[in-house]
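I am still getting used to backbone structure tokens and would like to learn alongside you. Label the sequence line and the structure token line clearly, so we can match residues to local backbone shapes. Go ahead whenever you are ready, and we will take it from there:
>
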Amino acid sequence: MCHVIVTCRSMLWTLLSIVVAFAELIAFMSADWLIGKAKPSSSEDVDNRTGGSQEPYHPTLGIYGRCTRISHLQLSRRDTLCGPYAENFNEIASGFWQATAIFLAVGIMILCAVAFVSVFTMCVQSIMKKSIFNVCGLLQGIAGLFLILGLILYPAGWGCQKAISYCGPYASAYKLGDCSLGWAFYTAIGGTVLTFICAVFSAQAEIATSSDKVQEEIEEGKNLICLL
């Protein structure tokens, strides 16, 4: 018989697992890993409301995507164009970024799988006498290691030609040059930290769902068990 068991710790672990997976996925897909040096506005870029020229803008560069500003001369307006600069894996600007993409993708796939499974832990707490919480926690720890490897290798690619075109000639491995780090990089780091927190917290979720109070309510014949 399926017993639906909901506790504060198990629910918090489930929510954190979902948040971490989405955070890492969004960061990976974003082009805001590097914020390039300011590009001056062209003479055609005029603000129609004020009559003055627009402020310089900062293009952004991701692992496989980028955002830059283009001018529509006929419409007398500017727009930001975002999309992948690499049509396939081999066109990613640096071998280090290719490795980063692989490690991050593997880590994110594991996190997404754990997030999907975590939703069902309210009904199923073990498979083949193995705690789902402990297995998921182990997988989250492994995913965290993949994410760390990816984030360590990423700055090594700052010396590639693509990064230099955004960050200036002084950019090199682990040196930003004229660039600054964007929100996607910090989000990836924060998600990695939360991944290890989830891995540790999974043990608390296991303890909460197998406590004496839960067993007592199961013995009383209750199918829906909610505990603080």
About this structure: The helical segments are 8-29, 95-119, 132-153, 161-167, 183-209, 212-219. Residues 170 and 177 are 5 Å apart (CA to CA). The longest strand covers residues 65-72. Confidence is low (pLDDT under 50) at residues 42-53, 73-77.
